[in-house]
Write a structure and sequence with these properties.
19 strands, 2 domains, alpha+beta, 9 helices, Alpha-Beta Plaits, 379 residues
Length: 379
């Protein structure tokens, strides 16, 4: 195995990748590798040894947030946040937890999404403390649980009363500043029928056939959304049906069927309006019902004139990088904090195209540059 670099932030990233922290994503997956507890303990110990006040806060059993504070006596407070969890490591083509370095890239699950940002934030803050340099902001550093599934770590942080003037959420953005992104809502639509022997289908009511009519209406609705008004950075809202399940056996007329919808919302779109619009689209059909949404995360749109955008842009410029300010179609914890009144942008090393992939990896030169930029932003 190639030797791990002596660069402290690379060593830190390797240590983080070696600790599995996969999100079970609502599935029946168990064990320490499907919790954030071990990696949360590691992060808390690491920053505590380097002089930060830190505590662990429970989100759910064995699923923890790390919250660290650095009081610089400053007028303003910045939130630096990155998530601890990753997607699963099934069918990876590189060793998921070995932190192997190949051609200047560290491979492994979470290296890109988003342990690279986590390592960069930790090292930037702790290195300033160890050097005796006082940041120009008070710093709240958080490493949170469950971003990949339900954003429950960020929601818990808001419920716990987190306070900051603005913030940065770490995600692989190629060190572009994402000042706007879509929100997401997910829920299920069901159709009900009547079971019968498949030799006598006329005696039953086929719930899958009924769902076919629902799907046809939703497909037309999704096309209408794409033709509707959009956002200058984000385009139009979207609707996708990603899961369908129904029936018991091929020789039984199915009495139930369900689908799961993924609706990407523009900043400011209300979830209640989205539900009502979807219900109106299906209004002429019989035998369907909708579950309440099991996930709602707001979109966000931070003005380009916001202090966090201006000051992070300045840090990029002083590091020799021309700032690129853009939007993203995915959702992040930043939507939760913006909704709570903390303007947060999204920023970090890595490319979203490498996230969740079979050969996930992170360019180590970009990681080290991210540390420089965050240090300049803070100091």
């Amino acid at each position: 195995m190639p030797t791990i670099s002596s660069e402290p932030v690379v060593q830190l990233l390797a240590d983080l990748v070696r600790i599995p922290s996969m999100n079970p994503m609502g599935r029946a997956r168990a064990g320490a590798e499907y919790t954030e507890e071990p990696i949360a303990q590691f992060v808390a110990d690491y920053v505590r040894r380097r002089g930060l006040d830190v505590e662990l806060r429970a989100v759910a059993p064995r699923r923890l947030n790390v919250v660290a504070q650095l009081d610089a006596g400053a007028r303003r407070t910045v939130l630096l946040e990155a998530h601890l969890d990753t997607v699963h490591a099934d069918s990876m083509s590189v060793p998921p937890f070995s932190a192997t370095i190949v051609d200047g890239r560290l491979q492994g699950r979470g290296a890109c999404d988003t342990k690279g940002s986590l390592a960069a934030f930790i090292h930037a803050v702790c290195s300033l403390v160890e050097e005796g340099k006082k940041p120009r902001y008070n710093v709240v550093f958080m490493a949170v649980a469950d971003e990949e599934y339900q954003f429950s770590g960020a929601r818990q942080a808001v419920a716990d009363g987190i306070r900051a003037d603005f913030g940065i959420c770490g995600e692989p953005t190629q060190m572009h500043i994402v000042r706007a992104h879509k929100g997401v809502m997910r829920w299920r639509v069901r159709t009900a029928g009547k079971a019968a022997h498949s030799a006598y289908p006329e005696r039953g009511v086929n719930a899958i056939y009924s769902m076919g009519h629902v799907l046809d209406s939703l497909e037309h609705h999704s096309m209408d959304l794409l033709r509707g008004p959009g956002h200058p950075l984000l385009g139009t809202p979207t609707l996708s049906v990603g899961v369908i399940e129904g029936g018991q056996a091929v020789n039984i007329v199915p009495d139930s069927c369900w689908i799961e919808l993924d609706r990407r919302m523009l900043p400011g779109e209300a979830s209640g309006v989205v539900i009502n619009d979807t219900a109106a689209v299906l209004g002429g059909l019989d035998g369907w019902s909708m579950d309440p949404p099991h996930l709602i995360a707001a979109g966000m749109d931070v003005p380009s004139t916001s202090p966090v955008v201006r000051e992070l842009s300045g840090a990029l410029s002083s590091s020799g990088i021309s700032p690129i300010i853009e939007g993203a179609h995915y959702a992040t914890d930043a939507g939760i904090y913006n909704e709570a009144g903390i303007p947060c942008v999204v920023f970090g090393p890595g490319n979203i195209a490498d996230a969740h992939t079979a050969a996930e990896s992170l360019d180590l030169a970009e990681l080290e540059k991210a540390v420089e930029i965050v240090r300049r932003f803070l100091a």
